[in-house]
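Design a sequence for this backbone.
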């Protein structure tokens, strides 16, 4: 699997002339017209967030899904999930905005707290014609603002991004976006964040540390029953189901996009013996890791 692509690498890939050196930890945001970047996006994780309005046909692959885009699409991506974009035939147009973690968390109402930047939320939305027109207008305003010399333009761009996000929220049932941060919600949010931080596994030396509900409860300093009850109440899934789902996703990505031995993948994901990994994977997918890799090859 390709290592995560950071913003300087992205600029290098699209041959974008960077005017100044990017300082780690400093907020950064940029806006582009999509026809200015008509290239295939390689399959990898990106070390930045991205919001795109796609006006053109193509194939989008992310996590374990493949989508054939044949109508206007609004897409959100985050550093946790790898994706691939292959432009289709015909005209490619649209806009996209990229920004880093420092920009996303610069204000109290953090962009990363919004639902479409969460690990298990929808990432692709299909706005109607009226919404496409309005979202296009917002991107044009962002492009204009980004080229201005206004000192507070990052705040303006963040406000435009929030407006675009709300178009996506309106396309989903309201109950999916209840942000009442009660005790259960806070514990669940901390658990999911802690789970997400363990990934990606992009090195054979990067072994999974927290593997069970008990491990997470200890790390969060809560009783395991309290953690399980909170996660189930808020998400409808058990703590163990969340952990297994994320490990399964990472296992599939490594089987598909790395040349590591199956035993190495299993060990990095916390399975002491290859047989344990094979049993886990087959239980959840109906196939052994070697069968999945053989199909891909």
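Sequence:
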């Amino acid at each position: 699997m390709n290592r995560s692509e950071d913003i300087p690498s992205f600029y290098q890939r699209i041959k974008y002339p960077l005017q100044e050196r990017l300082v780690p930890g400093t907020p950064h945001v940029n806006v582009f017209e999509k026809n200015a970047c008509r290239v295939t996006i390689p399959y990898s994780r990106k070390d930045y967030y991205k919001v795109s309005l796609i006006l053109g046909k193509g194939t989008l692959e992310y996590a374990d899904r493949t989508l054939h885009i044949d109508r206007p699409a609004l897409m959100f991506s985050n550093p946790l999930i790898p994706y691939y974009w292959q432009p289709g035939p015909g005209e490619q147009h649209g806009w996209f905005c990229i920004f880093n973690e420092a920009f996303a968390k610069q204000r109290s109402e953090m962009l990363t707290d919004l639902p479409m930047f969460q690990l298990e939320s929808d990432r692709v939305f299909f706005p109607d014609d009226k919404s496409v027109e309005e979202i296009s207008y917002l991107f044009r305003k962002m492009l204009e603002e980004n080229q201005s010399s206004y000192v507070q333009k990052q705040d303006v761009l963040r406000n435009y991004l929030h407006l675009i996000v709300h178009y996506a929220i309106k396309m989903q049932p309201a109950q999916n976006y209840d942000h009442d941060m009660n005790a259960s919600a806070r514990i669940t949010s901390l658990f999911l964040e802690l789970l997400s931080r363990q990934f990606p596994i992009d090195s054979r030396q990067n072994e999974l540390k927290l593997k069970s509900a008990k491990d997470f409860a200890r790390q969060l300093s809560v009783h395991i029953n309290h953690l399980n009850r909170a996660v189930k109440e808020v998400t409808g899934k058990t703590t163990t189901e969340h952990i297994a789902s994320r490990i399964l996703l990472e296992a599939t990505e490594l089987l598909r996009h790395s040349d590591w031995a199956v035993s190495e993948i299993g060990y990095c994901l916390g399975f002491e013996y290859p047989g344990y990994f094979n049993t886990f994977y087959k239980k959840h997918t109906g196939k052994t890791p070697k069968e999945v890799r053989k199909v891909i090859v």
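The CA atoms of residues 262 and 289 lie 7 Å apart.
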